[in-house]
Design goal:
- Strand 2 and strand 3 form a beta hairpin.
- This protein has nine helices and 13 strands.
- The relative contact order is 0.19.
- The strands form three sheets. Strands 5-1-6-13-7 form a five-stranded mixed beta sheet. A five-stranded mixed beta sheet has the order 10-9-11-8-12, with helices on both faces. It has a three-stranded antiparallel beta sheet with strand order 2-3-4.
- It folds into two domains: about 140 residues, Periplasmic binding protein-like II (D-Maltodextrin-Binding Protein, domain 2, 3-Layer(aba) Sandwich); about 90 residues, 3-Layer(aba) Sandwich (D-Maltodextrin-Binding Protein, domain 2).
- By secondary structure, it is of the alpha/beta class.
- Helix 2 crosses helix 8.
- The radius of gyration is 19 Å and the shape is globular.
Length: about 250
């Protein structure tokens, strides 16, 4: 069904670039629902985005998997052509890469064990003195904790699963991470003992990135994105992967 609908949406798209060379798309497939592995295949919002863009510009795309921290260095070194991996736009990163137009808005959210809902039910509770905060190094969540939570006790975790275990062991009170991590809690039965505030602590945008000076590719990606926005393809992709409503029971 998805393939049929996806094909119909793409029928209205024009082509602007024909090339036999595949664009090398850098991804870190550990970030559901944006980009992750399922049965050994890269799937998620960014995978669908890449498929749509590939159809629009008539150019194949090859997914290149690597750790998130290696994406920007690989782009700068010419090992990949574009990053499509849930990359938040920041001033620091904008000094290193050229961002396309944003395709989604989101923000950092606080996740907690359900036993602590009463204590942290309000967003302002995150800013209390002595709150034990967990973050992932090198993320915008870590930057938020460093800049805004001066009185917090900050601990670092390699990924969301490690932080979730930290919440269960009462090592930390809150885990701050991008909204997609919280969205996953809304549909994941294995983590039903955890819950998010679902109130963004920051205002961020996600975009794709190319090498600085690669105006041609940036222009092609922006034109493709505009078509995806105007004909409903982008909205279809986002709605397919992100829960529309969240209920707290």
């Amino acid at each position: 069904m998805f393939r049929r609908l996806f094909a119909i949406l793409l029928l209205t798209l024009g082509t602007s670039l024909a090339s036999a060379d595949a664009l090398r798309v850098g991804v870190s497939p550990d970030y559901p629902p944006l980009v992750y592995l399922q049965d050994g295949k890269v799937v998620g919002i960014e995978a669908d985005n890449a498929r749509a863009v590939s159809e629009i510009i008539s150019q194949p795309m090859k997914m290149v998997q690597m750790p998130f921290k290696e994406l920007i260095p690989a782009l700068q070194a010419g090992k990949i052509d574009v990053i499509m991996s849930g990359l938040s736009v920041t001033d620091e990163r904008a000094q290193l890469v050229a961002f396309t137009d944003a395709y989604m808005k989101m923000g950092q959210m606080a996740i907690m064990h359900r036993d602590k809902v009463a204590r942290f039910a309000q967003p302002w509770a995150v800013y209390r003195e002595g709150v034990r905060i967990g973050v992932e190094p090198g993320t915008t969540g870590a930057a938020f904790a460093e800049n805004e939570l001066k009185d917090a006790q900050v601990s670092f975790y390699t990924d969301a699963d490690a932080a979730f275990n930290g919440l269960r062991k009462d090592e930390i009170d809150l885990y701050i991470h991008d909204a997609p991590t919280s969205w996953q809690l809304a549909t994941s039965s294995e983590n039903d003992d955890l819950i998010s505030l679902y109130s963004p602590l920051t205002d961020e945008t996600l975009a794709w990135a190319v090498r600085q000076g690669d105006d041609r590719l940036a222009g092609e990606l922006n034109r493709a994105l505009q078509l995806m926005k105007s004909n409903g393809t982008l909205r279809y992709i986002l709605n397919r992967h992100i829960p529309v409503t969240v209920e707290v029971r």
